[in-house]
Amino acid sequence: MQAAAPFSEADTRGLYRAIYERRDIRNYRPEPVPDDVLSRILEAAHHAPSVGLMQPWSFLILRDRAVRARVHAHFADVNARAAEVWEGDRRDTYSALKLQGILDAPLNVLVTCDPRRAGEHVLGRFTMPETAEYSTCLAVQNLWLAARAEGVGVGWMSLAEPEALRAILGVPEHVVPVAYLTMGYPVAFPPRPMLENVGWRAREALQPLVHEDTWGRPHHALPFADGSGTATDGPQPTPSAQVDDGVAGARQAEHARTRLDELTKPPGSLGRLEDLIVSLARLQERPQPRCDRAALLLFAGDHGVSAQKVSAYRPDVTAKMVYQYLAGGAVVNALCREQELPFTVVDVGVDHDFEGAPGLTHKKVRRGTRDFTQMAAMTAAELDAALTAGRDAVRALGPLDALALGEMGIANTTSASAVVAALLGLRADEVVGRGTGVGEVTLGRKRDAVAAGLALHQPTDADAALRTLGGYEIAALVGAMEEARARGIAVVLDGFITGAAALAAVARTPAVADALIAGHVSAERAHVLVLGALGLAPLLSLDMCLGEGSGAVLAIHLLRSAARVSAETRTFEEANMRRSEDPAGLR
Question: What pTM value is reported for the model?
Answer without folding.
Answer: 0.69
